[in-house]
Design a protein that fits this description.
single chain; alpha/beta; D-tyrosyl-trna(Tyr) Deacylase, Chain: A; three-stranded parallel beta sheet; two-stranded antiparallel ribbon
Length: 132
Amino acid sequence: MGGAEVGRVGRGHMLLVGFTEGDDPTAVSWMADKVVGLRVFPDDEGKMNRSLDDIGGDLLVVSQFTLYGDTKKGRRPSFVRAADPETAVPLYEHFVDELRARCRGSVETGEFGASMEVTLVNDGPVTLVLER
């Protein structure tokens, strides 16, 4: 993008999103519900008891096919499990649409397939991998 900023959010989640064989719109809808409803934000007593929806939080959604990089053999990752762009782009767009329909805060995105510099301030002890 030549240094242009394409997405920025406040308090909430940054999602690194990859798709693989077997992913479909039903799985994507389930994931959107899960992301918005996960209770990982602290309540008044400091317990992880509030969801993104509860706090009116934001989402930054970044496509990341390299999540499916397989490093079991050799020294170079294999990305054969990552969905091809013809499959992944519609799933990614559907996921973002589903999140926008559910999230009270803003939903921003990176640029699909672009080489991006992503900056994250990790405020808390939680990093999760969600798969169905």
